[in-house]
Amino acid sequence: MEAPLMFEVLMYLNSYYFGMFSMFEFSVICAKSIDDTQKNRFSANELGTNMTVFVFLCLIEVFRTFLSRRDNAADKAVCVVLSLILTVPSAVGVLYFLLWQQRTFRLENILGCIQLVLQATQVFFGIVSLLTFKSSDSTT
User: Fold this and answer.
1) Which is the most buried residue in 61, 63, 124, 132, by most CB within 10 A?
2) CA 31 from chain center: how many Å?
3) H helix runs in 2-105, sequence order
């Protein structure tokens, strides 16, 4: 299978998976903030940090997905490069929810790992796509 096509397919899959992932994370943040037991309740600082990371993660991921799925073939390589660059802060945001929160659920960890694997696969096929773009430019 061609790398640019696989990259497109992965970004299409990511648009749906991240939608599910973000709805789940938002639900978990809400559930943790209204927990009845004082021992498990979020502090205001934790809630603010989680919501800030969540909003920035959503904005970055939406912009990254938009860039990588543009149909303009002339700037396709530029869009893929920008998408790959934006993968770094997106992965850091997912890592925050995976590793750096005070409390996490097992399902939260599983979904975060799936998102990171999906992003790593996108990076691989994005780089291969760039190499394909470069080699097709040099042959024409």
Assistant:
1) 61
2) 22
3) 3-33, 44-68, 76-95
CA angle 94, 90, 133 (to 5 degrees): 135
At 119-130, the pLDDT tens digits run: 999 999 999 988
- Indicate the SS3 state at residue 129: helix
pLDDT in tens, 27-75: 998 888 887 666 666 677 888 899 999 999 999 999 998 887 776 555 6
Q: Which of 136, 139, 126 is nearest to 69 (CA)?
A: 126
Counting Cβ atoms within 10 Å, is residue 42 exposed (0-12), middle (13-18) or buried (19+)?
buried
- Token pair listed for 6: 């696989």
Distance, in Å, from the CA atom of 21 to the CA atom of 85, rounded to the nearest integer, reads: 21
d(CA 57, CA 1): 30
